[in-house]
Structures are given as structure tokens and as C-alpha cells.
Amino acid sequence: MKVLIFQTEDEAKLRAAQIILSRVQSVPNSVLGLATGGTMEAIYAHLIEGSSNHSVSWSETVTFNLDEYWGIPADSAASYRTYMNEHLFKHIDVAMKSTHVPASSGDDPSDAAQSYEDAILTAGGIDLQLLGIGKNGHIGFNEPTSSLSSRTWIKTLTQETRDSNRRFFERLEDVPKYALTVGIGTILASEECIIVGTGVDKAAAIKAMIEGPVSAACPASALQMHRNVTVLIDNDAAQNLDPMEYYQHVHPEGRETELSNV
Ligand code: PGA
Asked: Atom of ligand 1 at shortest distance to CA of 131?
């Protein structure tokens, strides 16, 4: 894993936006995997600003979101479809028909999951997957103990995740109990991943992801098996990492290594 540690959370998020923007600029028909949550809000604000400042067009870009609650209308205020429309899609020139979010309702969640997985394969797979990380180490809604080779599926949310997401709903009872999520195996099949975690709340999960055993107890640790992952974190989230001098030596303050200077 490439571990980039920044002084502030905004620097980490800005770098994530820059990586995505340069991908869209250089390969306009990229297939992007996108995420939701508090961390992503600033990243999307940077993306919107960067797209407008540098005239980057998303007109050929295809997106697949990681997950969606199951059992709420897609157009409800708390759905991830609404989140994406509000925080990103309506502010850039992406074709709405090229934006995909898993279904939030239907007769059979397993069928909906399979259709979503098939759509990703038909699009040629994910070129660049953006990820956040839960306090419990989840990626997408793959909660601890999820199969590391899972494909898009229906998952039961932990109480901790429901409590964390309570802020987006009026009452705790309104927070869905289930979600459709791209699987860990689906994420591992992407060409490249960037994962962003900031703040002291994420420090334990970040340590388990980077330095812990590969284990379903921390789903993000499966990324140790991916060949092209960049971890973007701030000092607070990095505080438990062990060979800190090494990470700082390789990428001082989050800078890329310049091999010509080595
Ligand atoms: P957060 O969620 O950005 O709201 O902390 C991240 C996640 O649960 O994946």
C-alpha cells in the first residue's frame, strides 16, 4: 500500500479529488467507483471546483456507487442516490444515465445485487475505486466478518454503523437495517483503489487495515492483497501507525516519491 500522511484532513481529501480529476482528464471514459458518507462531502466539493476551474468534462465518464440502503425509496432524502445527485452529479456534466447506484428496493435483493455486479462487468470493471473506511474497518457496507471474496450482495448493518449514520435520519428507527453493497471481491477486482480516512475516530481501523493481519475482522485489510492502493490519511488517523518514520521517509508530508532524486 502507498501510505500518504497529510498534516490536515483537507489536504488528504484534496489529494483524493486531484487523483480522480486527473484520471477523468486523461481517460475521459473511465469507469469510476464512488462512495458516500461524511468524508466524501469535501472530496466532491473539491471535484466540482476542480472540474469547473480546469474545464474537465465528465460527459463520457461512467460511475458505480459502492452501496445503497435497502428498503427506502431511491428518491428519499437519506438515500445514497439523493446524496450523489446533491453532492456531485448535478454539479458536473456527467450523463445521469451513466451514473449507477445499487437498487434500494425490489422483489428480491439477491437479483438486484446480481444485476449490479453484471452491470459493472459489462462496463469493463472499475478503473478507479474511491473508498472511505468505517470506524469498524468496513469498506462499502461490508461489515466485519464479510467474506473477503464477496461480490455485490445484501448485508445486515451493524448497530455501530446504524448509530454512525443516525445523523442522516430523523430517528434511529428510520435508519435501514440492510444495504446492498458491492462486495470485497468486487472492490479487489478494480484496477486501482484510493481510500481516505481522517480523524482520530478512524485511527484504529487505519492501523488494522495497513498493519494488521488480513482478516474479515477488518474488511479494509483485504486491500493489502490489492496491487495498487493509495491510502490518504491525516496525522490524527495515522497516530497508531508503527513504522511512522518509514512512511514519512518514503512520502514526506504525503508527497509522491521522486525516484530521480533517490
Ligand atoms: P464517514 O463514513 O465518511 O461518514 O466517516 C465512512 C464509511 O463508513 O465508509
From this structure: 9
